[in-house]
Structure of Putative cold shock protein A:
Amino acid sequence: MPQGKIKRLVADRGFGFIEGDGGDLFFHHSEVQGTSFEELHEGQMVDYVVGRGKKGPCATEVKVA
């Protein structure tokens, strides 16, 4: 499972971006597992799975590392 750092959170819109080895990936609040989206913060390390979204690759199954 890849690991990355939360680069940016847009809390009022419910999404963010993870900085990983393959570049930045979008993630939606519905993909956060084991904690709530509101508890995440920029710079935090997370594990994720790379999936396909409407606009290209995105992060799914996002969990705090």
About this structure: Residues 4 and 20 are 4 Å apart (CA to CA). The two ends are 10 Å apart (CA to CA). The domain at 3-64 is CATH 2.40.50.140 (OB fold (Dihydrolipoamide Acetyltransferase, E2P)). The beta strands are 3-10, 15-20, 23-28, 45-53, 56-64.
